[in-house]
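Long-time lurker. I teach an intro course on protein structure, and each term I like to show students one example going from raw sequence to a predicted 3D structure in token notation. This year I'd like something fresh instead of my usual example. Would anyone be willing to generate the tokens for the chain below so I can use it in lecture? Attribution to the forum is fine with me.
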Amino acid sequence: EIAALVAALADPTDDYGLFGLFRSPFMGFPDEMIWLIAQMPGRSLWEKANFAYFLLKPYAKEKTPPSQFDLPENLQNSSSLPSLLSLFFYLLQKKHPLLRKDLFLTAMENLFSWLQRASRSLIHPLLLQIFEETSYFAALSATQEGKNGQLVANILKIMDLARTWDEESRGGWKAFRNYLVWLIQQETLEGEEVLEKDGEGVRIMTIHGAKGLEFPIVILPQIGKNFNLTDNKDLLFDKADIALKAPLKPEGTKKEAPLSWRVLLSRLQQKEIAEEKRILYVAMTRARDHLLLSGTLDKDSKRNRQSWLQWIQECWNLQKEDFTGQVESISLEDGEICFLPSIEEFSKWQKKSID
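-- Reply from a regular --
Happy to contribute to a lecture. Here you go:
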């Protein structure tokens, strides 16, 4: 949400950033409203939103539709005029929030003000002002994430970055936006800020949430489970591209994958595999004393090709025979690992030294 706010203040014609800002608690537009705005004339979401604002502002409190809109001359005979009139009638009949001054118009006026102040303000103080004006933290407290404090901790982490950015005079809004995008791409912001907890109890957290923590014993189960990589979706998209599989002939049913789809699929799978490697690294490095890796080695080695187990096998140069040796007892010294073929076959548990 804050990344979207920064992106929109850096460049309101950035459709991705503005869309995220519209949906965030800072503006609170429902998806239906954003779709309606997107039907307005304009090359970007920003132009469409401006058109909607200046079109609807004079009639925000009208109870009956006007006889005609006060449109710019170049749109008086526009082919989009009938659809706009229909849209306006629909909004009035449904009492849609798009016509509510306390939502759409006020939110847009706030955005105009933020953009004006952003041109002459540092990043950190303006973000704090926006939080106060929109009661952002109060809105967060009403959500489940906000109640447990985790989301607030992550926001404060970004605010610390903004404060440091201002203190070091590293650039303006666009530079800070690019910095946040780079951090997100590097997954630096993905790991959640660790919260200190008082009292006793069991804490359940994600692997990313355990960053910076250390545990006496760490157990990683099912390391032989294959990754759930993107592979059979007809529609693929990421932050920059979109690709679609479709029948080559109208009567055909077989969908062909064009080059753009295959390239995007490869890119998405590379990102997913890179994320799996990051998760495995974080998980394995949380152990202080003992690390137990548990998984099933399939007889068909091809089935383990996309799994943590495959990477561990390749890293330690392990063969199938390493998982099936016969030993009568297990006694581990520092620098040794133990393989567990099956919990029912304790006699086959084996240890191996690592240089």
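Some talking points for your students: The longest strand covers residues 287-293. The longest helix spans residues 259-284.
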